Amino acid sequence: MLMELAAVVIGLLGLFWSASKFIDGAAAVAFQLGMSPLLIGMTIVSIGTSAPEILVSLMAASTGSGGLAVGNAFGSNITNIGLVLGATLVIAPIHVGRTTVFSDLPILLGCIALCFVLLWDRSLDTRDALMLFVGLGLVLLRLFRHAQQPDENDQSFAPSELSARQAWVRLLVGLGILILSSRLLVWGASAIAFSMGVSELVIGLTIVAIGTSLPELAASVVSAMRGHADIAIGAVLGSNIFNLLIVLSLPGFFSVLPLEDEAVTRDLTAVAISSATLAIITLFCWNRQTQQARLGRRSGALFLVFYIVYLWVLSTQPELSL
């Protein structure tokens, strides 16, 4: 038990230390490449912090456990908005710009609508996976166009004191330790929970689901505290989009995967509700004069309550009884 407790403590310390280095490196790289914080959040940060979900999905799909990959994709999206964004907003407010409100959020809602259409027959096959990859191509094209013509309302970075080499080293080393720390924390917490008699299914739907979102949580909290709010919101939205278009699609390339009713009626619906709520709040808080929407502690508390309610609903399901 002492080894498991040590793993949890070391994992937590490593998580937030590496997140600090990762965000410093990402900010410096973005400045040197002329990229906006929002764009760096939706590309380097979101793809990097989504690595655990992508690896879990690929391993699960290749070993015939595609259902785990689907659950990971939906669960991570719910966790990213409910826990990651909720906790970040409680710590520090975020100002959401025009690009996010009127471009990125509609794209995320469009991806969710596409998932409903493709999965309504309760199966995920190669055709569905290809359609999701087409959507990924369109998203990447949009990001490329944004890089060429950034929005004038996007935040900009202050000049960095790091050299190009130092910036890339911090970014890559920080990302590597970020992922390793999250794996160490999940292993320790899972071992402790298992020794207390908690079922593997409950562990998978709680500790593992949260564990794969820990890089996003650490990166978002640190970036918000450093004043790089666009990185935080960009990381959450970018990660959620890539979860739906990459993580969800992988099982379809291996075999036809039948889906349980709950995956669509409960979990994908929860993804839609959380994302739509975020879109509605940003529109409600939109300030025409500043061309921004300010999200604060009330919004964060609302997302956290939603996440707690979702976990409570999961705990009431018959298949989760210990």
Describe the protein's topology.
Elements: H1 2-33, H2 37-49, H3 51-62, H4 66-91, E1 94-97, H5 98-119, E2 123-124, H6 126-148, H7 164-195, H8 200-225, H9 229-247, E3 257-258, H10 261-284, E4 286-287, E5 292-295, H11 297-315
Antiparallel strand pairs: 1-5, 2-3, 4-5
Helix pairs in contact: 1-2, 1-7, 1-8, 2-9, 3-4, 4-8, 4-9, 4-10, 4-11, 5-6, 5-9, 5-10, 6-9, 7-8, 8-9
Major sheet: size, sense and barrel closure? Answer: 3 strands, antiparallel
N-to-C series of helices and strands? HHHHEHEHHHHEHEEH
Question: pLDDT average, as an integer?
Answer: 80
Task: Report the sheet-strand fraction.
Answer: under 5%
Helix content: over 70%
Total individual domains: 1
| Architecture (CATH level 2) name | Up-down Bundle
The third-level CATH topology is A middle domain of Talin 1
Gross geometry = globular
Number of continuous helical runs: 11
Task: Give a written overview of the molecule.
- A hairpin with a 4-residue loop joins strand 4 (286-287) and strand 5.
- It is built from 11 helices and 5 strands.
- The longest helix has 32 residues, at 2-33.
- It has one domain (53-154, 197-320): Up-down Bundle (A middle domain of Talin 1).
- It is globular, with a radius of gyration of 19 Å.
- The strands form 2 sheets. It has a 3-stranded antiparallel sheet with strand order 1-5-4.
- Helix 2 packs across helix 9 (229-247), helix 4 (66-91) packs antiparallel against helix 9 and helix 5 packs antiparallel against helix 10 (261-284).
- It is mainly alpha-helical and 322 residues long.
